[in-house]
Amino acid sequence: MKIELPQVGESVTEGIIGRWLKQPGDRVEKYDPLVEVVTDKVSMEMPSPASGVLTRILAEEGQTVPMGAVIAEMDAEDEAPEAPAGGTAAGPRSAADAEAIDKTGVLLRDVAPVGPTGSGGVAVSVSPTAPLPQASDATAPAVGGPRGRYSPAVQRLAQAHDVDLSRVTGTGVGGRVTRKDVQKHIDTSTTPPLDAPPSGEKLAGEKLAGEKLAGEKLTGAGVDVERIPLTPIRRMIAENMVKSAAQIPQAWSIVEVDVTSLVERRSSARDDFQRTEGINLTYLPFVVKAVAESLRRNPMLNSSWDGDAILVKKRVNIGVAVATGEGLVVPVVHDADSLSIAGLAKSIDGLTDRARRGKLDLADVQGGTFTVNNTGALGSVVSQPLVNYPQAAIITTEAIVKRPVVVGDAIAIRSMMNLCLTFDHRILDGAEAGAFINEVKRLLEGVGPDTAIY
């Protein structure tokens, strides 16, 4: 049987093979960890889909492959007979599946949040005698491959640079043209002729690049540099941040919140909660609860851009940014609006623990519709986060600090916290964004001694 790279999230089109945990000839039981896969949303151990013997590895470690591509083969027990000669190993995707590709779904990682987006709808089939093509491979499907549907981002970039898309070689799923392909075509077309003298800056850059080795320390005239090669997850994060900054027109807003009563409520419940549940009750579950309720009352914040339409999500799935040793990931609390503060605390604690141990499952990073980032844990008091593509907005909670505040006609010492919201200005205007963030503020300031934890 052929083993395919599973789809992690609707906005994820490719992954990087981190490390094979089994080798050809090894006996593998169903659900045994088979290979480590890194995407912009998660670093995960992919389980074996069946029991049997691994016979061939088609995607090497460090290789970038599209989702749905065949990465290995195995002799599986109770395997159904193969399709007759001349037939296809797998039937074509349905029209509904094709439409689902490149639609928005899930920080982290929707993780993320999160690599470049393609718009193909055809699974890649790999010959056992040929290596699996990488997403960036120049030998990807030739010009004249599948055409006809291009993502809005591809069309905008092509129009801006007067590019004929029929002349662009596609490297996405099924040979579809991605934004990377268009940019590469533009860069190649505008490359100066070979006899043109390179600039001094380019010469200096090429000389430095030629001297650098991975991890080597350079010492020269005013130069003291250590070159650290990118890990797969850091490269994915970098690509996702560039995509967010380049494709989303982002605006932001800040409000300050008096959380004095929240601090007192959490303090009064913390010890009992620790004894009962065995975990710490932090401020984050209170915030996620307020955000979830506010999203229900302001549904446009729980949406994403789809070129000629806005997709409003019916479920409130909140991604929570988690800093790990490998980078930032965003596991997802599904149906957060249906959970109590205690339920949110337990869910967030479990996700955070698995994220830091690198044990997140696919379900842990799929389907995110909005992201919360607790930058206050790092000591920040004001920040402007980047939207977790392709979501509509992201909110940060900043550090809680005591300071003098005017209360009525007096000055009092209060616990204050800033909330910072960044939003996609194509979807939202200031009025909608302001209504949402002020609703979150109202709910947080409304926490009192009678606020239910369970």
Describe the structure.
- With 454 residues, the chain is α+β, with helices and mostly antiparallel strands.
- Among the domains are: 1-78, RNA polymerase II/Efflux pump adaptor protein, barrel-sandwich hybrid domain (OB fold (Dihydrolipoamide Acetyltransferase, E2P)), CATH 2.40.50; 235-445, Chloramphenicol Acetyltransferase (2-Layer Sandwich), CATH 3.30.559.
- Helix content is 26%, strand content 22%.
- It is built from nine helices and 21 strands.
- A hairpin with a 4-residue loop joins strand 15 and strand 16.
- Helix 7 crosses helix 8.
- The chain is globular, with a radius of gyration of 25 Å.
Features:
454 residues, alpha+beta, OB fold (Dihydrolipoamide Acetyltransferase, E2P), Chloramphenicol Acetyltransferase, 4-stranded antiparallel sheet, 21 strands, globular
- Helix and strand composition category: alpha+beta
The CATH homology group name of the domain at 235-445 = Chloramphenicol acetyltransferase-like domain
**Counted beta strands:** 21
Our count of helices gives: 9
Query: What portion of residues belong to β-strands?
Result: 15-25%
Question: What would the principal axes of the Cα set say about the shape?
Answer: globular
Q: If you consult CATH, what is the topology of the domain at 235-445?
A: Chloramphenicol Acetyltransferase
Helix content: 25-40%
